[in-house]
Amino acid sequence: MGNSSQAALAAHALAKRLSGHHIIDGRFVPAISGTTFPVINPATGKEIGCAANGSAEDVDLAVTVASKAQAAWAQTSARARGKALNECARRLAEHAEEIAQLLALETGKAIRTESRGEANLVGECFSFYGGLTSELKGETVPFDPKMLTLTQREPIGVVAAIIPWNAPLMLMALKIAPAIAAGNTVVIKSAEEAPLAVLRVIEIVNEVLPAGVANILSGDGPGCGAPLVAHPKVRKVTFTGSVDTGKYIAQAAAEKLIPVTLELGGKSPMIVMGDADLDKAVEGAVSGMRFTRQGQSCTAASRMFVHESIIDVFVEKVKAKVNAMKMGDPLDESTDIGTIISRAQFDRVHSYIQLGELVPGAQSHHLSNVPSDPAFKDGLFVQPVMFTGISNDHQLSREEIFGPVTCVIAFKDYEDVIQQANDSDFALAATIWTNNMKLAMDATQRLQAGLVQVNQNIVVQPGLSYGGLKQSGLGKEASLEAMLEHFTHKKTIIINLA
Ligand code: ADP
Ligand code: MG
Known about the structure:
Elements: H1 3-18, E1 22-24, E2 27-29, E3 36-41, E4 46-52, H2 56-75, H3 78-94, H4 96-107, H5 111-130, E5 140-144, E6 147-155, E7 158-162, H6 168-181, E8 185-189, H7 196-205, E9 214-217, H8 221-230, E10 234-240, H9 243-256, E11 260-263, E12 269-272, H10 278-288, E13 303-307, H11 311-323, H12 343-357, E14 363-366, E15 385-388, H13 395-398, E16 405-411, H14 414-422, E17 426-427, E18 429-433, H15 437-446, E19 451-454, E20 469-470, E21 473-474, H16 480-487, E22 488-496
Parallel strand pairs: 7-8, 7-10, 8-9, 10-11, 12-13, 12-18, 13-16, 15-16, 18-19
Antiparallel strand pairs: 1-2, 3-4, 5-6, 6-22, 11-21, 14-15, 17-20
Helix pairs in contact: 1-4, 2-8, 3-5, 4-5, 4-7, 5-6, 10-11
């Protein structure tokens, strides 16, 4: 038996072991209702295990536990909390490979191109915040010489972290590592489609953290997520997901007057000027569109504006690159592109592709090939599609598809392309590709986005603030600023010296 099939067997066994549990107060517990829902391998359509079906009762238990644990956790010194996070990071790194295999199994994200990198980021994120706890400091304020005035950063309390399925490990880590570092405790609600790899991460961090600091529930949005947001002891919600759910959560949080951080959708422009280094831009288009993740990324470069003088050769070169990529078994090391997450998303992506194909003058380029192996005949594989001839005002260019579908739009004029790039309901990320640095710098000033890159398109990194404007959300993640602004409040203290 090869190493990769051994790894697959181990991932299946791990999925079985984790099945049907939340982690509350450091222990595996089933849902109080006793019910579960299935977890499906999207590459085969087969059930690999199940998840506890959380409801308001489980939420109440988890939040009560987290609330009790919070007082003691906040009393732990900042340095001790940092050390604990670093020890979590060390153990997460030790187990990164098994976590990656499990992620690939439950989400269909290819092991070599996606799942392994994501699993490694979890430990990175814990060590990043583990090193920052001494930055949780306040100031002295020059208010009155007779009054010693200072500010102090304090944790908020119990934080609810509601996460999606597209990058569940990374997005969970970006939320809980800064929250816990700052002295909060957390109750996570995992996504229905990807509850297991995140559960393994929380099992590991519970070997280090005091019981009740990191709790995780599985369940659906209305039945488990909504009561979590509404629970009176939850004092902050951090959410990544769809715009509609984000707005719903913001409204529910407003009822309690608690702060929210929202990372929502994107429709990120990639501008390729006529003088760009074409091969670099083509590489950037392939990685930027996250073809290896089936385009299931908030920052996917799903609107590619390419100067009319180079658009034909650009399209041919991107086609050649994606055609050379192998779609197949997510657990196979040679696979570049795995599957779509779920049948519902699969149907949604197809409906957008059909819509695009009806646009007069549009051309669709279907790339790579779905695997022919009968073992994957029920797998949710979709050929990536590049559309040309669809304008920026069409629905396909305006709505987030969250699949491997991109519109390549020709432009003539720089002013016009900046205006088109900004003409979107979203404002998460943008890139520009040119050798004209003056123009590139102008674009960095004028593109509306939380993240603008020139001649590259790298993904979220611990240390760099990440978060969008407009319908893309509220607040920042991944940085020191994110921890300070979103997981603490500042108390002002005045001591009368007279
Ligand atoms: P999608 O359904 O397209 O994957 P969502 O934004 O609905 O995207 O899901 C992201 C996360 O939000 C998931 O964990 C989901 O269960 C959760 N969620 C969905 N609806 C609600 C809700 N009403 N309240 C709280 N959480 C929700
Ligand atoms: Mg939903």
